[in-house]
Amino acid sequence: MSSTEHTTGDYIRHHLAHVETGSGFWTFHLDTLVVSWVLGCLFLFVFYYSAKRATADAPSGLQNFVELVTDFVEGQVKDTYHGNSKLVVPLALTVFVWVFLMNMMDLVPVDLTCWIGGLIGNDFIRDIKIVPTTDPNLTLGMSISVFILIIIFSISAKGLLGFLKELFCSPFGPWLFFVNFPLKFIEELAKPISLGLRLFGNLYAGELIFILIALLPWSVQWLLGGPWAIFHILVVSIQAFVFMMLTIVYLSLAEEAH
């Protein structure tokens, strides 16, 4: 391997590697935890700040924006969710805004944190991976949380016996429970896996393309990076919307009798 190939490989591995602590199963990605928590707190602060200063006389631009996002999410829930839980609207709002903010970190120049970390002498900032949704641990963790809510909503709506009956007696009746359960188990397990991997795959691919563009000469970077960044704004928005909508759909289906 030539020195150029070695340098290119090291550059790519550096940008795809996480800042870790611990070992084995108890390995934590500190960059994923820090960035996701900071963005989550930012979301809560902005929406709380807007709500505390909301006025009907002369609403500010921030208030209008927050109301626009809230009304949009509430409209999606009313059109899709057919249950009675009051948790779904705030859950959908949190999922949409939080995932959107984490996705938008993919638009930060890939070498910016390296430059800042080197400038101030901070190894964590230099090595940080600032797009939490390119970490399958986070996306699958969120999808597993949704999966747990699906089970809770289903048991709450149908009762434990109704939930078990749906697992073992659908779709071929109780006498074929040994066929029904594996089919139902795979169907339900596919929901969190597909939900998490879809978000991870799209954002990871986008990040990788930005890294490859950053390896090109400076004059070419702007030529390719600009259009891709504009297109990626659509990608990150759609992925946040899809994650929110599938969460609403899955919770709605969990409460419906089949």
User: How much of the sequence is in beta strands?
Assistant: under 5%
Taken from the alpha-carbon principal axes, the silhouette is globular
**Residue share in helix:** over 70%
* Terminus-to-terminus distance: 59 Å
Give the number of helices. Answer: 9
Biggest sheet statistics: 2 strands, antiparallel
**Which structural category do the helix and sheet elements fall into?**
mainly alpha
- SSE series: HEEHHHHHHHH
Tell me which oligomeric state these chains represent: single chain
Number of strands: 2
Record the strand order, biggest sheet.
Answer: 1-2
Unreliable stretches (pLDDT < 50, length at least 5) are 1-5
How many separate structural domains?
A: 1
Please compute the radius of gyration using only Cα atoms: 22 Å
